[in-house]
Amino acid sequence: MRESSLSYASLTARGLTPNRWDLIAFPLVLGLLLLAGKGAHETLAPLSALKEPVVSLDPLRLPEYALRTTLRMLAAMVASLVFTFTYGTLAAKSRRAELVLVPILDILQSVPVLGYISFTVVFFMSLFPGRVAGAELAAIFAIFTSQAWNMTFSFYQSLRTVPRDLEEATENFHFSAWQRFWRLEVPFAMPGLIWNMMMSMSGGWFFVVASEAITVGDTTITLPGIGAYLARSTAEKNLAAVGWAVLAMVLVIILYDQLMFRPLIAWADKFRTGQTGAQTAPQSWFLDLLQRSRLMRTMGRPAARLLGALARQRFAPLRPRKLRARTRRSTLIDIAWFAIVASAAGSAAWRIVVFFASGVDGTEIGHAFLLGLFTLMRVVVLIVIASLIWVPVGVAVGLRPRLAEKVQPLAQFLAAFPANLLFPVFVVAIVAWHLNPNIWLSPLIILGTQWYILFNVIAGASAYPNDLLEAAASLHLRGWQWWREAMLPGIFPYFVTGAITAAGGAWNASIVAEAVSWGNVKLTAAGLGAYIADNTAAGNYPKIVLGIAIMSLFVTLFNRFLWRPLYIYAEDRMRLD
Amino acid sequence: MTILETAGAAGLSDPILRLRGVSRAFPKGAGEVRVLDEVDLSLRGGEIVGLLGRSGSGKSTLLRIIAGLIRPSGGEVIYRGQPVEGPAEGIAMVFQTFALFPWLTVLQNVETGLEALRVPPREARRRALFAIDLIGLDGFESAYPRELSGGMRQRVGFARALVVEPTVLLLDEPFSALDVLTAETIRTDLLDLWIENRLPIKSMLLVTHNIEEAVFMCDRILIFSSNPGRVSDEIRVSFPHPRDRLDPEFRQLVDDIYARMTARQTMGPAGPAPKLHLASWLPRVSTNMMAGLIETVAAPPYDGNADLPEIARNLQLEVDDLFPVAEILQHLGFAEVREGDIRLTPDARNFAELDPQSRKTMFAHHLLASVPLAQHIRRVLDERPGHRAPRVRFEQELEDYLSDSAAEETLDAVIDWGRYAEIFAYNDQAAMFSLEDPKPEPVD
User: Fold this and answer.
1) What gap in Å lies between CA B393 and CA B402, rounded to an integer?
2) Between A and B, how many residue pairs show a Cβ–Cβ distance under 8 A?
3) Where in chain A is the domain with CATH 1.10.3720.10?
4) Stated pTM of the model
């Protein structure tokens, strides 16, 4: 896994986006969200009288809650996969769709995950009036939004880079599009997809916890699960229960990793193309067990046979494909297509303006923008601090293979662990010592995501070529010169990958971290995250939209003008070949 | 030539570099695995010394010990009267993989070593430009390594090593990653500079597995034998530079060294190959290479009896490519190798005539008869009720005697051969040996 992290991360970090399409994508996405939220809100106000399941703080109920939480994650992952396969394929196969879909995906990626839930909760609950299913769907949708985008990007990029010779081979052997998809494209995209699934999963725990207990206006969701358990223990100031929730989460993540992800990664290793054998092939005891046990193989065979048969279907007549020349008509269609998309975006933009006009004025926008700057400052300062700490540590660890082998899984585990489970502990401390929440709540936004910096730097330092280390020693490079000329450039691409993930996570976390409570004590730090959280709780839709729009804008600009150039620079200049 | 001789004469009295009883071993299982065993050597001013040996013989490890990059587990390296305990000033190294920093330009790559030595920037720039000029890189100062061809990259490697004006230049197979033409050009350029005494160095130590290269460049060749690595032979080369590869004397010396190295491999002048043990290290030689060599030697003009150096030359192969193949053929009872000659056994002549399936049968027979590890795996599989056995089972057995990587390579080699011979099946995903062939899957 280690050596692959970089190449797969690059797939998502480096967009191929033409800029004018962004201008269209941004209003389209926001307009769509707005419609979903607003429409449902207006028509379905009385639905909030939901028969709410009560979460018990009995630790013995925790296994059941943990299971339900995990099932939500799984359901969201299935949905993400379906989305990935369709959306990614469409974007890769159709030039016109690509022009719109890719920028949209890019914007979707920068909308804060918890923003989606504010909009969609009411909509989903309206689908199943008075039943838990709607709330479940809303939570699953929120988790889906935290997982799907980077997977889709990865898949789309893989489809775009399928080796020409393999493609020609499938044509030569008369594969139908369906067969080519399962025989070539999916397997080729698999390593990148799996890696991104893993990243999605580790991010997902945070949001599953956050979305199990949420209040939008007068609609309150409480879904039996670890997140709801935590919410109740926080409300009741029960620190022991918080401890139980943390313990349950630790166990769940470990089990999930061992029973689901390690096997998947070890299995997907066979999809690596190219003849270069990895230095260490990923291993999984559970996969070994499955593959070696006769019983398991026998049980798995019918399913494998069914899937195999499905992949072998043609779903298309067997006849030679005719090559078509491009005609002039296609430019006309292009123009028409552009016109349609542009007018859709225009009308979406108009709706947003009208909507804003109903609830927010210029001062409000200015206020939210200022709060955005506060949060931006928090993110930047904390990324810098975390980098100053974790880069040296990561290098020190990464250069010691034995140590790295032990620390790396720990860092990955910490990255997956939903940091919001630990927030109550911090809140208790801040309350007890009367600390300034504007400063002391800030570390919470990076609590969970700093580990991405650590494990990417460890990966970078482990992958640092031994001959360059020897050359540096032989040339007597020492101290700052060693860092500047030998080590830092070598790990830079890895660091950027980690920092991008950490910064993205920090923006997302700010919605939860800038406004926290312990019993009836409520702490708020001035920032855009708290603004969104407060307005979500109050059900103030125009302000939620404003907050989310501004945060998406910040994130998009941040990506465009900082991370993407840095990434491209790192890829071009510091690539080790 | 005169300059060289005076330099040599001046240096002869006291060696610049002296190794005494240098060993390197690491603990393994019950005992330890020795990579280097009591190596003594000395390097005097004005000479190029070659360390010639097969890959895996520990010669690169030795070079790194001299460079101060690895610590020996026994013995010492004395450079100018001082023990080497870390990268020593005055010893520079050129790497097989070039080891250039890809994010630095050519000029920055060359300057970086000077900066480390606290040479003032202006002086550093002047010296770097001079070195770049000397090594034939002018015009490429601002290029990044990836813009350069392999040959140009290695020139940067040389410039970077020379610019610090070292006393000793260590060369770790510097030409083996280059194509033949490029390698020859850079070799000649380097030798010209050396002969004209324009290099700021006193002597060079060249690690190589290429016999011709060693004879072409060196004044003294130390032949390195493997497992554990030690100096087994010393040969003086007294031809004047520039040397002519086609000169019969040159050729004779190359053949001689070939013979010495094969003699070393096969122990003793005559008789059958030494018996393999269960845990003998085996190189990963493909069955295609084996069949190819058998066919080549069986066909005219060799008719079953050939000179290895000649075959190597004709096939554009090096010692490292050909020795292991010949050696394995010998172990399998397909050939006798002696003093640089290879002679096919009657079975091998037969093999050359057979169709693919019969070849497999014959190969299986020889494999089971002469490679104890293959025999052992087959027996275990036969005895087990499910006829399955995990890879680790055998790997652990081997690791008691071999280093991890050697154990892995040996097992991989036997897996290749066993699969070809169809004496067992192996599933790499599950790392599992079995006797079952893939079942024909019913197509629904």
Assistant:
1) 15
2) 82
3) 39-268, 332-577
4) 0.80
